[in-house]
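hey can u check if this looks right to u? its 221 residues, i copy pasted from the old doc so theres a chance i mangled smth
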Amino acid sequence: MKRLIQRMSIMILSLMILVQSTAAIALEAGVRFTATPVVQASPAIVEGIPNPDALFKPSLIDLQMTGIPLRLPTYIPKVGQRLSDPKAKKEVLPLYGHLDQATANKYQVTIGYTPTCEGGNVCRLGTISATRLTKGTPSIQEQYASRKDPNFQGKRSKEVMSDIQLANGIPGTFVPWVCGASCTDAEVVWDEAGYRYSMGIKVGDRASLVEMANSAIQKKL
């Protein structure tokens, strides 16, 4: 029995020496052992609404007359589709684009569930806008500073305000939603060629809003 234990001890010791020797040789030869990196899956993109271009056609001439380079998304997430009854199946409601404003300094379109929705919490799916930048325009971080208020008592998105990279190398900012008496849009906001653009979806998520913004940047008008 003692001899068996001695033999096993010698084998273990020999194996340890072999491993150490192999590592030393590899290190001397410049070989490095590294762990395989873990690749995280990209967040899922919410399914888009069909034919989003149709929302902007009734207002397209008015929008073009502003002279502002248009950024109209070809992808709009279905996030925010209402329920007629919490216990009922999800209903897919018709969507409309309502032109809230169209001037040389700003345009804004509300995407809503009624033809006359002007941004009300109940009827709004989201909003797109563009505003001319001036010397007095605050930075994006300053404009949305209230979204980062640590003393806010309402419900807020688990996603945080963060810098993002958009299509064509354009830097932007993701602005999360908050809910008090009503809920705000989560937004992707960026400055481009003298204008500040925004794509917003009520209680939206970052991945889908980045996709929405990129679709608007890449569209040729």
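The first helix runs from residue 2 to 28.
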